[in-house]
Specification:
By secondary structure, the protein is α+β, with helices and mostly antiparallel strands. It folds into two domains: 2-114, no CATH class; 132-334, Muramoyl-pentapeptide Carboxypeptidase, domain 2 (2-Layer Sandwich). Helices cover 19% and strands 21% of the residues. The protein has helices spanning 5-8, 10-13, 132-141, 158-161, 192-206, 221-230, 289-304, and strands at 15-16, 30-31, 59-63, 66-73, 76-81, 86-88, 94-97, 100-103, 111-114, 155-157, 166-167, 189-191, 210-216, 253-260, 307-310, 313-319. The chain has a seven-stranded antiparallel β-sheet with strand order 6-5-4-3-9-8-7, with no helix packed on it. A five-stranded mixed β-sheet has the order 11-13-14-16-15, with helices on one face. Strands 1-2 form a two-stranded antiparallel ribbon. A hairpin with a 2-residue loop joins strand 3 (59-63) and strand 4 (66-73). Helix 3 crosses helix 6. The longest helix is centred in the last third of the chain and has 16 residues, at 289-304.
Length: 339
């Protein structure tokens, strides 16, 4: 499947910039274990939209062990290699053979463009190892890991604090990587300090013409177990281990993106939500300057409110101190009810 391309080009999978904002500054990509925090004051002015003529060339090209990421940087096509090199690439270096784009490099061997992740508007899917009904039954019957010494939970609903926060709760629909509804309701809850921090971030983003669109927040533990049991070991990097619980289970994590205030539409990022590919890395240098700027703006605003970005997912943010809350397994319908 497409997401397994990560295992065939490991160097590219971890390719990152010292800071994603450095893409505009002209530095070379480096191997990074975790993304470097971005100060909100360091966010530059938004770049121009990419010229339509350049869009077809943006992507990834490979032949044998040679893989290059072609991105748009400051209005030009730039190729990043797994060795940390970057080169401006003129459009004449691309050819089309039988409808297939190829990139000619110094060695003379053309690299062939290949598909990474998902196309715009297409949701990435896996085939669960077992039927959803069986996964759900087993997960609901399982025991939540025991914990002691945690804060008393206080889950609050985000939209009750700020009605301009929008929701697209993918796991309440079949528009998710599992291809089936995991939640019974399309709602978003977080522990109060986390929810209030998200509200502040949403207010800050309005000055840039954006609002927050929530894909996921508090997640009952049994759903985390379903994800784990449905996927193989190679994909467990992108799902939490139920043995320790997830930050989502604690109500201190949120998956989100930006929508444009002017039209209410979600923005395009370098990779899609819940995409099992290296385009999900917060420092992935591909895509366009504007896509990377949006991703970096979201991250800078969230980090200014005490969140940190997940090293594997540009959309996933954890509140500092997330471990203070217990693993939760309360269904959405019961949030706020007294025992």
């Amino acid at each position: 499947m497409t997401y397994n391309m990560r295992t065939t080009c490991v160097a590219i999978a971890m390719l990152a910039l010292a800071s994603p904002l450095d893409a505009q500054a002209g530095t070379s990509p480096v191997i990074a274990v975790a993304p470097t925090p971005i100060a909100l004051s360091a966010v530059p002015t938004p770049p121009r939209s990419v010229a339509a003529a350049l869009l077809p060339y943006i992507g990834e090209y490979t032949f044998a062990a040679d893989t290059q990421i072609v991105a748009e940087v400051n209005g030009a096509l730039v190729a990043f290699t797994s060795h940390g090199n970057r080169t401006v690439v003129p459009a004449r270096d691309f050819t089309r053979v039988n409808g297939e784009l190829r990139l000619t490099v110094a060695t003379g061997q053309p690299l062939v463009r290949f598909a990474v992740g998902t196309e715009e508007g297409v949701t990435f899917r896996v085939k669960p190892l077992r039927p959803i009904t069986e996964l759900r039954r087993n997960a609901l019957a399982a025991t939540v890991p025991a914990e002691t010494g945690k804060r008393a939970p206080e889950l609050v609903e985000l939209v009750t604090l700020d009605s301009t926060i929008r929701l697209d709760i993918r796991y309440a629909t079949d528009n998710n990587f599992m291809g089936a509804a995991m939640y019974s309701q399309g709602r978003a809850f977080m522990q109060r300090p986390a929810a209030e921090a998200v509200v502040r971030a949403n207010r800050t983003l309005k000055a840039f013409g954006f609002g927050l669109l929530i894909h996921d927040a508090y997640r009952p533990w049994y759903v985390t177990k379903m994800f784990w049991d449905a996927t193989t070991g190679a994909d467990h990097e992108f799902v939490a281990n139920p043995a320790t619980g997830s930050k989502h289970n604690r109500g201190a994590a949120v998956d989100l993106t930006l929508y444009t205030l002017a039209d209410g539409k979600p923005v395009r990022m370098p990779g899609g939500y819940d995409e099992f590919s290296h385009r999900s890395y917060p420092s992935y240098p591909g895509g366009t300057s504007l896509e990377r700027w949006r991703r970096d703006l979201l991250r800078a605003v969230m980090e200014s409110e005490g969140f940190s970005v997940n090293p594997s997912e540009w959309w996933h943010f954890d509140l500092t101190g997330w471990a203070e809350w217990p693993i939760g397994n309360i269904p959405f319908e019961q949030v706020g009810r007294r025992p």
